[in-house]
Amino acid sequence: MDLFSQAKPAGDKALSVTQLLRRMKNLLETQVGGVWVEGEVSNLKKQGSGHWYFSLKDEGAQIQCAMFGARKRPGADALEDGAKVRVFAEASVYEARGQLQIIVQKAERAGTGDLQARFEALKRKLHAEGLFDAERKQAIPGFPTVIGIITSASGAALQDILNVLTRRAPWVQPVLLPVRVQGRGAELEIAQAIGKLGRPEAFGYPRCDVLIVGRGGGSIEDLWNFNEEVVARAIAACPIPIISAVGHEIDFTIADFVADLRAPTPSAAAELAVADGTELLGRLAQWRRRLDRLTRERLQRARLAVDALKRGVLQRDGEKLLREPMMRLDTARGRLAQALRAAMDTTAVRLHEARAGHRAHHPARVLERRLDYLTNMRLRLLRTVQDPLIRHNERLGRLRGLLRALGPESAFQRGFSITLGADGKVIRSAALIQPGDLLRTKFSDGETTSRVVDL
Fold it and tell me: Phi and psi of 145, rounded to 5°?
């Protein structure tokens, strides 16, 4: 593009410097507009007006930068000499000096975008696993006596925590486990320290009621160790409640979401961990005054009751007052004695019955009754068996005599005989035999065999 030929006025009149620079400025602002630029900050100047001026450079070039109302601009705290930053700016020209510059709208440390993406990814992962759920968070004890502190031994955060504990609860014993809170590998030290105070007996530390884990403020890079997964999982696995105190109130880390309680600052963490001793003393004094007042009121009521008794029944004759209670006592004593005698008589009767029952069930008595029973049963059995046998024998004798009288033997004795055919049947008629038949004839003392020759 031929800027000068297009800008040349009619009659070959030359442009003024102001006109030229203004056209260059308009062209830059129109054609380039807002862009992200990355480089190293140098020669930073913070004016009393609130405007900051600095250079942004890399290995091959540099450009002047201006940030107006810098303290209100996002990411202004990232600007310091030597810091590598990314800025969103508009290309322009400073007409008074004819100087190319960019007007910075916001800034962030280089790599912040990648860190933010890692932060969001880990946050989504741990949230899906339930590490942020309120149900798994432990309650902070109301009156801890031993508090574990995991932070840098040289940082301001430690002094802030100790100052608050000393002021609010001087009876609390702090247990410091110093760690690095910034730099490569610091997250491993933090996680290991949490694990040690979570199992103090195994490492020779006193058992703490609550732990404070954190550090002072800083950039996202400075706080990044508290965004590492190893620290988050160590906090989630710790059996002791943990208060996270990382950075300032506007800073949020993964540790804040996993911890049982998040404090905006280390000082606030100490205040959340312990009750205010002065407030407790005030409450104790209030309770003591209330207890004194209630005690005095009760004593006063008791005195009034005693005075009323003195003016009433206690002014009468004491013996008269005790007569009726003594009579009731005598009546009760008589009833008690009568009840005791009745109970003893009942017990004696039951004991006598028990002894009689015991004698009746003595093994010797039981055996005697069983022997008597067996003897009776044997006699009954003998009678039951012998009587039918006798009757049957008598009947059998009668039948035997009748058989002898009417049977064939008696006929044999009188000279009769019985003739049988070959088939063993009795021959009762001569018509039943034929010549040649074989016959058997029985006598009283034997039998003979014969054959029929003729009829």
Answer: -110, -20
Cα 104 → chain centroid = 55
Q: Which residues pair with 54 in a beta bridge?
A: 65
Which of 274, 290, 317 is at the close of a domain? 274
φ/ψ (deg, to 5) at 6: -70, -35
pTM (two decimals): 0.47
Residue with tokens 């009323």: 308
**Which residues contact residue 230 at a Cβ distance below 8 angstroms, ignoring those fewer than 6 apart?**
187, 188, 191
On whether both 269 and 286 belong to a single domain, the answer is no
Are both 260 and 283 inside the same structural domain? no
Question: What size, in residues, is the chain?
Answer: 455
Residue pair 70/79 in contact by the 8 Å Cβ criterion: yes
Rank 296-300, 311-315, 364-368, 383-387 by mean pLDDT and report only the highest: 296-300
Query: Alpha-carbon distance 69 to 357, whole Å?
Result: 113
Task: Compute the radius of gyration of the chain from its Cα atoms.
Answer: 64
Please state, as a whole number, how many other Cβ atoms lie within 10 Å of the Cβ of residue 157: 25
- Condensed to tens digits (0 to 9), the pLDDT of residues 370-401 reads 888 888 888 888 888 888 888 888 888 888 87
- Pairing relation of β-strands 261-262 and 242-246? parallel
198 near 238, Cβ under 8 Å?
Answer: yes
* Strand, coil or helix: 194: helix
* Residues 94 and 193 both lie in one domain: no
Provide the number of structural domains found in the chain.
4
Of 147, 230, 213, nearest in space to 179 by CA: 213
Q: Is residue 323 part of a domain?
A: no
Q: Mean pLDDT across the chain, nearest whole number?
A: 85
Helix (H) or strand (E) holding 413: helix 408-413
Give the pLDDT confidence score for residue 4 in this predicted structure.
46
For residue 266, give every residue at least 6 positions away whose Cβ sits within 8 Å of its Cβ, in sequence order, or none.
151, 157, 158, 160, 161, 212, 214, 215, 216, 245
Q: Containing domain of residue 178, as a range? A: 121-134+142-274
Looking at the structure, tell me whether residues 246 and 125 fall in a common domain.
yes
The answer to whether residues 67 and 100 touch, using CB atoms and an 8 Å cutoff, is: no
Give 235-264 as a 3 state SS string. HHHCCCCEEEEECCCCCCCHHHHHCCEECC
**286 and 270 within one domain:** no
Q: Are residues 207 and 148 in the same domain?
A: yes
